[in-house]
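Honest question from a wet-lab person: if I give you the sequences of every part of a complex, can you actually get the arrangement of the whole thing, not just the pieces? Trying it with mine:
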Amino acid sequence: MLIKQLSVFLENKSGRLTEVTKTLGDLDINISALSIADTAEYGILRMILTDPDKAYKALKEKGFSVRLTDVLCIATPHRPGELAKALDILSKNGISVEYMYAFEVGEKAFIVIKTADNQKTIDTIIAHKDEVELINADEICQIRAK
Amino acid sequence: MIWNEYNECMSREEMIKLQSKRLCETVERVYHNVPFYRKKMQEMGMEPGDIRGIEDLNKLPFTTKQDLRDNYPFGLFAVPMSEVMRLHASSGTTGKPTVVGYSRKDITTWSEVVARCLCAAGVRKNDVIQIAYGYGLFTGGLGLHYGSEKVGATVIPISGGNTQKQIQIMRDFKSTVLACTPSYALYLAETMEEMGVDPKELSLRVGIFGAEPWTEEMRKKIESKLHLKAIDIFGLSEIVGPGVSCECEMQNGLHINEDHFIPETINPDTLETVSEGEVGELVFTTITKEALPLLRYRTRDLTVLHYDNCPCGRTLVRMEKCKGRSDDMLIIRGVNVFPSQIESVLLNMGETKPHYLLIVDRINNLDTLEVWVEVDEIFFSDEIRNLESLSAKIKHQIESTLGISVKVKLVEPKTIERTEGKSKRVIDRRKL
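Yes, you can. This is the full assembly:
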């Protein structure tokens, strides 16, 4: 259920993002999802990868500050109002979202989500499995646009 | 006009005689009243009687800022606390300030030397002096205050900050003398421009500037912008505060009040006295102070001493404007800052010490301090708010240690250049 997300600290200067993505490309690591949180001076790159452990090691060797964090991925039907529904379930159960990023593949929308309490989130989503689906790491990495 | 013609214009022979007499008394006193000095002298196999005059000065042990810290707060005082009338302190490493004490006589001496300085700068009893040095534990404000009162000038004890109000009062009260740090003087000039106040319409004629190093270029800029004569005053709290030395109207070196504080210049590595006219680290021995007499205190300031005669008539030895430091201390907005202070703050934040870099600059005539901290894995988080609270925490802790505001910038690991395995800690862009 838990998905390993790799975060990288990036200073706002040119070429840093290229360096990270090139390193991953050279190792044949695929990026399934990605988001950047930016501030005035630095950003945090967050990625779901085909081989997070290998990427962690490689980037660390290159001198990047990296971290693996457990996140969750949920899927909803790709239709207006579905995300609101899913978030409503979380908020009604007292789960607050730290950050999230999303992408759609055909009929489905995938939302990578970090909450303060992963286990509680898992339990809540399982209790509402008719409305929201939990996605495994393997599934994300195998998603191909149909 | 010379405030104390007898002491300020003595022949060299008379001065040496006076210094020698006072030095012997001081050595006798510290030997009997300050265990630190007694121990040091005993270790060197010395007795007070071995010092017969200033020719024996270089036999005496040195005192460093570290000695003051090690004896925090009152360990080096030579009088009981009942005789201590005032305490001042400067910021110090790991939160421990350097504490200095004054007896009643010390306060009188301090007022006297500041009065001499002001008089040499051209300040008279008809002047209105606006003291924009900080009042409080910092010696700047109160030191100038007592000296100004002694001269009989009208004192405006406005203290630092509140720039617009400073200018309003300067205009309305017709201040003729401004006492503050040179960088604040420039900042005032700039604010005047913004406020549409023409310095020519003010009554300023003399500026008493000190507490931080400044250049001849800065002097020219201040003089042309504020339409006053910019005089350099020097001092350090350990010796007395402002008033250790000051320029006269000739502006060709700062006359040291050497009948109270004997100066020497030494090579900071060999500790040998340098020849006259050569750059050396300034060392002072106080010879009239009661509460905190110091033998051969190493100021870490680099300068040159000149014993030739000054056209003003004073025979007091002159020191050049300080040329730098023989340690890594920075003076930022008049506050002494050691890189080690920031290091110890960072050390307290995590398990290991992160790499850091201090960038000192002067923007709009105000010193700025930016602290770059490498975000290694111990500090890194995938959540922005954690990083923001980290930098806020670093900022807060550094600010409460140093007492000045700083900007904290988080940077990637290995951003900060390493030379011979050690990081470069400071980049000073102020061109001093």
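Two things worth pointing out. The first strand of chain B starts at residue 84 and ends at 90. Chain B has eleven helices and 23 strands.
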